[in-house]
Design goal:
Shape: elongated
Distance between the termini: 60 Å
Number of helices: 4
Largest sheet: 6 strands, mixed
Structural class: alpha+beta
Order of helices and strands: HEEEEEHEHEHE
Number of strands: 8
Length: about 180
């Protein structure tokens, strides 16, 4: 079973590995004002802001499982916001390092991931996205916070296995017989 938190932690690890001079400066936080956890000061924050099914991997054919043919695993697209809570000039420098880290490592392959995530996914693909001004305002408004300098990423994750494995059998023989009409 895929744990989305493990994907978020893997992304933080990429940033930490690319910026050893800053120590452990990225943390996971919802950034939502409804979340009672206080915002960290002088830290980078990675916030998962949306989860959706991956458009291009929807309706894949059945796959072979232990129970026969089963639905293909679900592929997800995770949407993240990364920001730095502190001085604006320092925020620009830190966000530049995040962009550099993900640009240098846009695909995380299985050997780069920690178990159990490495046992469940082949790759994580990270893409910088640019929401419109209105979309950014809507995101910050939904979080209940004033807008801050931030970068936005989409991460493709596959697969999320089906919980129930009631499979269908395979077609062993297909036969059509014609009978001549009298």
């Amino acid at each position: 079973m895929l744990v989305i938190t493990e994907v978020s932690e893997a992304l933080c690890d990429v940033i930490h590995q690319a910026t050893p001079d800053h120590g452990s400066w990225m943390v996971l936080h919802s950034l939502s004002q409804a979340d009672k956890a206080p915002l960290p000061d002088k830290k980078g924050v990675l916030a998962l802001i949306a989860v959706e099914e991956h458009d291009h991997l929807r309706n894949r054919p059945l796959t072979t499982g232990a129970a026969g043919l089963v639905r293909a695993p679900l592929a997800l697209k995770l949407h993240y916001l990364a920001t730095f809570l502190g001085d604006h000039d320092e925020a620009q420098r830190r966000l530049a390092r995040i962009v550099q880290a993900f640009h240098s490592t846009p695909i995380l392959r299985r050997h780069m991931l920690e178990p159990p995530l490495a046992d469940q996914v082949e790759t994580l693909t990270i893409r910088l996205v640019g929401p419109t001004h209105d979309q950014r305002n809507q995101i910050w408004g939904a979080l209940g916070r004033p807008g801050r300098l931030a970068v936005f990423y989409e991460v493709d994750v596959a697969p999320v296995p089906v919980l129930r494995q009631d499979g269908a059998g395979r077609v062993v023989e297909h036969r059509v017989e014609y009978v001549r009409a009298p």
